[in-house]
Write a structure and sequence with these properties.
There is one protein chain. By secondary structure, this protein is of the alpha+beta class. It is 64% helix and 8% strand. It has one domain. It has a 4-stranded antiparallel beta sheet with strand order 1-2-3-4. A hairpin with a 2-residue loop joins β2 and β3. The two termini are 17 Å apart. About 3% of the residues have low confidence.
Length: 305
């Protein structure tokens, strides 16, 4: 497959797709209608750093979090356009606020789970206080176990499973375009749900890179180790971003090996969508990306059917 540059995320009853400085949300209202909204990407934190490798990744990560909250909020508004009862709309608005607050709280809890808890648990092992490498390995194993357990737990939640199906629709649509096939339900349905540029793969790389970086932290005090890990987050995310970026642009053997664990993790966060979900993803792609022209430029003049 060739790299198209298009990416996106699953949102409430829909899919957001982004192509360069444009993005679109295609969501179903509660009445079943697909509504698509197109936007220009506003000012981004990462823009001044976009050409600086190992620096741009952290700021791109912050931008993705900000946009993630924004599009989730807007997708809730789109869904509620199908509601006729004002009281239901009020309830939905309150639900949106809860979603945003839960997202922010989730970030705090994620930091505590993946950074504070493994460091604390490792400190409980007797006799390893000055065995820095062994302690880093124990912390790393704990961090990896917590990460996988977290994915398993949320993948079993019924409401989240529907979001993961839209996640699958997003991936399948991009895979369809990048595999030089017509972007329609019939062809998208045949495409795989996994994609090397997925955020799940990025998080897996973050966990692995943090384990490697942790080998160089030679500090005894628990709070100081946690502080250093927090300060090293831009470094870890920057390295992880470059790995993910390389993976998305190459099909080399070593890239496939490097991407394999992240693709395996996607089995927990990406599910098979139904046709109605695929229709949302297709509408979002069509709003921001001329895939026919891109395929012609990259694969030559052909009959895509």
């Amino acid at each position: 497959m060739k790299y198209s540059g298009i990416g996106g995320q699953a949102i409430l009853e829909g899919v957001m797709m982004r192509n360069q400085d444009r993005y679109a949300l295609s969501c179903r209202t509660s009445d079943g209608e697909i509504i698509t909204r197109e936007h220009q990407v506003g000012k981004e934190i990462a823009r001044p750093f976009k050409n600086i490798p190992f620096v741009r990744g952290f700021f791109a990560f912050l931008d993705s979090l900000i946009m993630g909250i924004k599009v989730l909020n807007e997708s809730s508004d789109i869904y509620l356009q199908g509601e006729s009862d004002e009281s239901e709309k009020g309830t939905g608005a309150a639900s949106t606020l809860v979603t945003v607050l839960s997202f922010a709280l989730g970030l705090v809890l994620a930091f505590a789970l993946f950074t504070v808890l493994p460091s604390f648990l490792a400190s409980l092992f007797p006799g390893i206080k000055h065995h820095y490498t062994l302690r880093a390995i124990i912390e790393g194993i704990g961090r990896l176990v917590i990460f996988i357990a977290y994915l398993v737990l949320i993948s079993r939640m019924k409401d989240i499973q529907r979001v993961f199906q839209y996640h699958g629709a997003e991936h399948k649509s991009i895979n369809c375009v990048e595999s030089n096939m017509p972007l329609d339900v019939e062809h998208v349905r045949t495409c795989p749900t996994a994609h090397k540029r997925c955020g799940t793969s990025f998080l897996f790389f973050v966990v692995i890179v943090s384990i490697i970086v942790g080998l160089f932290i030679r500090v005894d005090t628990l709070w100081l180790r946690i502080l250093i890990r927090l300060l090293l987050l831009p470094v870890v995310s920057g390295i992880s971003y470059e790995i993910l970026r390389a993976a998305g642009k190459s099909d080399a053997g070593w890239i496939r090996i490097l991407s394999a664990p992240g693709l395996l993790c996607q089995r927990l966060t990406v599910k098979e969508p139904d046709d109605s979900m695929i229709e949302c993803a297709i509408a979002s792609v069509n709003a921001v990306f001329d895939w026919r022209q891109w395929q012609e430029e990259n694969f030559g003049d052909h009959d895509a059917s």
